[in-house]
Amino acid sequence: ARFSQPTKIRDRQKGPCPSQGEGTPETGRRLMPVASRKVEPVRLLRTKPWFRGEYLSVRSAPNGLRKNRWAVLVSKSAVRLASDRHRIKRAVLGRARGIPNMGQDFLVAVLKGKASKKELDSEFSRIRIKIDK
User: How many folded domains does the chain comprise?
Assistant: First the structure.
């Protein structure tokens, strides 16, 4: 509905809850703008795969930081159920903790969803061997 006059703050009903802008601390603001955060995965998709196994494809690019950042992509065509996609993401990120910090952004794409924990462990052991070279 259109209003003939703009609604003013003083016209709002006073209640026990403050409006969203009032009383919120400044610490909740984002440090990085949203647009530049969306550019990061696209930059990684344009790089060549750094590692390609039977179940995982890993791309990497330097990020200028002292720590690694990880992103995991599990498509719906690879794994139908959302709960299974989330389980695989958690499993991949859990195994990524063992990779030493090199200041890289890693994008892990899951190619087949039927990977067991044992198969994921073997893929990550091959990734560790490639890093150690």
Answer: 1
